[in-house]
Design brief:
Elements: H1 25-30, H2 36-45, H3 51-65, H4 72-77, H5 86-96, E1 101-104, H6 111-121, E2 126-130, H7 134-147, E3 152-155, H8 163-170, E4 176-179, H9 193-197, H10 201-204, E5 207-213, H11 217-220, H12 233-236, H13 241-244, E6 250-255, H14 260-270, E7 277-280, E8 322-326, H15 329-341, E9 353-356, H16 362-373, E10 381-385, E11 399-402, H17 438-445, H18 450-457
Parallel strand pairs: 1-6, 1-7, 2-4, 2-5, 3-4, 5-6, 8-10, 8-11, 9-10
Helix pairs in contact: 5-6, 17-18
Enzyme class: isomerase
GO molecular function, one term: 3'-5' DNA helicase activity
Family: Belongs to the helicase family. RecQ subfamily.
Length: 518
Amino acid sequence: MDMHAMSPHHSIHPQLPPFYLHKSLYFVRKLEHLDVPRLSMLLFVIRKLDEEDAIRYAIILILPTRLPPRPFILSLSQKGKIVPHQGQLEASLASTSGRDSAVIARTGYGKTLCIAIPLLLEPGTITLTVSLLKRLQMMQVRDFMQKYNIPTITINKDTPQSPELWAKMAKGEIPHLIVQPEQFRMNHGHLPRLARLLNDRGFSSKITCVAIDEAHNIYTAGTVIDGRPAFRPAWGALGELRVKLPKTTTLQALSATMPGYIYRTIHQNLGFRSDSLIISASINRPNIIYATHVLVDGRRNLHNLHCIIPDPFHPPMCLPKIVIFHGEKIETSNVSQYLNARLPEPFQKLGICRHYHSDMSPEYLEATYSSFASSDGLVLILSATSGAGEGLNVPEVNGVINFGLPKKVAEDKDDPDRPLLSTGLGKKNPIKQERVGTAAVRLATCPGCKRAVYAKFMEDESDDALDFTCLWCCDGHPGNRFSLAKLFLGPIHTANIRLVTKRKRNKYRPVKDRQALV
């Protein structure tokens, strides 16, 4: 259960050491785009630093200058300043110095800033960011436009075909393009406009960096695994950009899910150079409690979700903000309708419980997500497909429920070079329970610390990999008085657990024993 998503707060050191600009010619070049008043202020504050430290402190002061207009001195003294930490700076310096890089860090680490800093330090260049979902693209555009004042646009099948817009892109007037991978190559017999624009050397020569967000999809969505076709083959073809773009263009892979075998696939697919950089931070979320509960009669028994909305429900009860992930779209609507019916009649038309998946209209998805993400929104219980959670960071979520074992949680680690995806491989007709990831089964059934199992799978060996800030770490520590019921308003549904087995089919007599029809 996600108990309050926390985000780090950064602050500027009150006393900056002196620095002489002649000691860092590289640093001087990065300041050429600053106007005289801001450069004078920068020289006044910064004195005598090594090159990397100089860039660090320069970024502290440069970033506020690119925010929406306001007095520069005021921007230094108010809250909301953006101060990169060491990992973000290393990734940014790699991109600006021609090195490929992989950034492995949890959601909320600040991977967006790893893309923004090179754009701010290299005016006149273009960065392509590969993004998974339209919903995620819209969020990223909002961040880059509002936080960093960087002109940004999404490129997908819904992008307008306006000649004026594409002319601006071709001239490099829009420095940041957030692209779905299908726009780089032939798609359903059609060559997208961006793919054609890449053949224009005047445009492609301006592209200095390609950032692949949620890069693990190169493996999970773009690779043929155990004979099953790739879900989105365009992800597996991103390495073709190496041929289409200049040799000086750097590639940057960013993800929270990059254990060794996935990283090796990404490294090979993208053709990372020998001097590529890996920046790895802990993927541990210390504000999460890991717990499992056996469903009574499987997912079709929605009484298992009565703990979310108790009966009777009445004010002043306050419903927690909860996301329920499902493996099927039809299940999202069934569950949202069922939970909504448990509310008192005056509350049932407020949209407190809503479903969310890719078949819904863009207007509905935008309204639903905005309400759920807002601190004063009406949507409190979001029933969504697992893909909806890719890369999205919603603050103040109190609980995350995987209704059934997720298929994508992980692959088997016994053979890291060829992970096993499901327990039913090798069977002609595996039942549904046998098609889930074996690592998901291992995580759910392990008798010990689930945080440790997750860290081992993700190869997280950092010092804080097992830290937690909640009342409990997980339900795998006997004697810690863990109680799942304390995390919900209603009682946990329990009964004699009946294992769901595959339905028995009628058996026919052998042909030789059957009587002739004529």
